[in-house]
Design goal:
The chain has 579 residues and is of the alpha+beta class. The chain contains ten helices and 36 strands.
Length: 579
């Protein structure tokens, strides 16, 4: 940052103009210059202060330090958080600069005998500019996992179906097996390792790599279907509860925008069923259940959906899917009555009735597929909901979110970006990322870095993955702005970590992602840093292994945003939300 200095005596303060100084340009010598000024001026408590100023309106000043009665909230904190009452104003200035708050559009330091003013070379001081440069100020305790459920106070009310969303590892989920305990460090590492397996699977699909000999799950005595590495990618972290059958049975399913075929475990378990919280679904007890024949058009479409040719036994269609984390499900393609809410029922819903299942679903009964495929819930309910759905994920594991089907008007309008042509023939939702900013400054990343492999948005991937060149630029900028904090060792896939032991609050630079159509997603601070413990807090982004690997806009960066998938109009929208 380059600052221009202006010296003014006391009488000139009110005439502080918008003209830039033609004097020396200060980069890293601000503190030295202030020291010299302080040696010449007598500091008088109650008069000396630091203020931001509006270059176009010099009288529009905001006191930020020095005056004990200056209580205006500016740059996110009150004066009492600064050491402004130390016997030397220099300490207050240094604290602000070392905290990386030197990104003021304007800065003026008043002394008993005059003042020193600084202005950014770029010039204009606007509310938008101040917002972009202003860092997040966050208490570390607010980022650490809680073992108490704090649900959102109000879910959206509209005529379409809305389901509650919970994190499967959090206290709001009845699937949580930890009780009042929090996830251990080893559990956190496993979660991130599973995340990488999912990413690897997505990369494998979209790069159309060959040579995989395929996977074959444990064979069933009734099913000869081979389960190979196909078009499915692994379990996510968010759960919704739906009703299946007549009478309906409540089942908790993992919502997944990267998978098409919905399925649940069914009795009889021919070979193996993993432990789930609710009773396993019994088709024979439902009056609306039916198998799908091998001659069905949807049976023949299974291969394009799962990557596995369907099997056929006694004229009944069989499916098989395997996920990136080595979970799998084998069973019958079936149709049943699906109940989302008491007034939202889908008849003849096609799903997989799994009789041979194994995996890391942590008590969930199965999966709810929301991808761009004819077998997904979105397409099967297209006439009812217009192939439109949105979600707002829980802002933390101890909170709740929602999943809505059908258009609704949010409190703040959605900003839509078109789906990318790069993923047109896949089941993924592709986006055209155009840039990234850190600390209010757009990083110098060439457009080809993003366009080479493209980007997909995925509700099941936790950590956003960026092309190496883009991630290197983000990491460098973030580390520079966080350089005054103690570094910590890398944590699994996260390589930029800090030890905040003994620190109550920290300044975290803002990060924004830009997409085609002029859409900016300013990531909430809860989606910027991944807090394992006070001594292990990391930047919640990671790089891909190669620039040819597709980027993934993961769910951690969706927090505090409602994300709308308007599949009919081929676009994805973002709206700030309180959830």
């Amino acid at each position: 940052m380059c600052l221009h200095q202006q010296h003014l005596d006391t009488e000139q303060q009110d005439e502080f103009s918008s003209e830039k100084s033609s004097g020396h340009c200060y980069d890293e010598n601000i503190l030295e210059d202030l020291t010299r000024s302080l040696q010449q001026c007598q500091y008088r408590e109650g008069y000396s202060y630091i203020s931001t100023y509006n270059i176009q309106n010099p009288r529009d000043d905001h006191v930020v330090a020095g005056n004990p009665y200056a209580g205006e909230e500016i740059i996110g904190f009150r004066m009492g958080m600064l050491p402004s009452m130390q016997p030397n104003l220099f300490l207050a200035v240094k604290a602000m600069i070392m905290a990386r708050l030197q990104v003021f559009v304007g800065l003026r330091i008043e002394f008993g005998c005059g003042s020193v003013g600084y202005a950014l070379e770029e010039g204009k001081d606007t509310a938008d500019t101040r917002h972009r440069y202003r860092p997040h100020i966050v208490k570390i305790s607010s980022l650490l996992a809680s073992n108490v459920c704090n649900p959102i106070t109000e879910a959206p009310h509209h005529k379409k179906a809305t389901l509650k969303v919970v994190h499967k590892h959090g206290p709001c989920s009845h699937l949580n097996q930890l009780g009042d305990q929090k996830m251990s460090a080893s559990d956190e590492i496993k979660l991130l390792e599973q995340d990488q397996l999912r990413v690897n699977s997505i990369h494998s699909q979209l790069s159309k790599r060959s040579g995989d000999p395929g996977f074959r799950g444990p064979k069933s005595t009734k099913s000869a279907i081979p389960v190979r590495s196909g078009q499915t990618i692994g379990s996510g972290n968010y759960i919704v509860t739906v009703g299946l059958g007549t009478p309906k049975k409540q089942l908790s399913l993992v919502l997944d925008t990267g998978s098409a075929l919905s399925w649940t475990q069914c009795e009889p378990c021919v070979r193996y069923c993993y432990a789930q919280k609710e009773p396993i679904f019994k088709p024979l007890e439902s009056t609306s259940y039916a198998n799908v024949s091998c001659a069905s058009e949807l049976c023949n479409a299974l291969e394009s959906t799962t990557g596995v040719s369907p099997g056929c036994i006694t004229s009944t269609c069989e499916y098989g899917v395997q996920y990136g984390d080595n979970s799998y499900s084998v069973g019958y393609l079936s149709k049943e009555r699906l109940t989302l809410t008491s007034s939202d029922v889908i008849e003849n819903f096609y799903f997989g009735c799994g009789q041979n299942n194994r995996g890391l679903f942590r008590g969930a009964a199965g999966l709810l597929g929301l991808s761009r495929d004819r077998l997904s819930l979105i397409f099967q309910s297209g006439k009812k909901y217009g192939r439109y759905f949105s979600y707002c994920l829980p802002s933390s594991r101890s909170s709740t979110g929602f999943l809505s089907f059908g258009y609704r008007r949010p409190r703040k309008a959605f900003k839509f970006t078109p789906l990318s042509s790069l993923t047109k023939d896949t089941q993924f939702y592709g986006l055209d990322m155009t840039g990234i900013s850190v600390g209010g400054k757009t990083l110098p990343i060439t457009a080809s870095v993003f366009s080479k492999a493209g980007t997909v948005i995925d509700s099941g991937t936790v950590i956003t993955r960026l092309p190496p060149k883009a991630y290197d630029a983000v990491r460098k900028a973030f580390r520079q702005l966080m350089s005054d904090y103690k570094a910590a060792q890398s944590y699994s896939i996260l390589d930029t970590c800090y030890d905040f032991t003994g620190v109550e609050s920290v300044f975290v630079p803002k990060i924004s992602f830009f997409f085609s159509g002029g859409v900016e997603v300013e990531v909430d601070v809860s989606g910027i840093i991944y807090a394992v413990s006070q001594s292990q807090v990391c930047l919640a982004l990671a790089g891909n292994g190669d620039d040819s690997d597709v980027g993934i806009f993961g769910n951690f960066q969706h927090l505090k945003w409602e994300v709308a998938y308007d599949v009919g109009k081929e676009r994805v929208g973002f709206s700030p939300s309180a959830c």
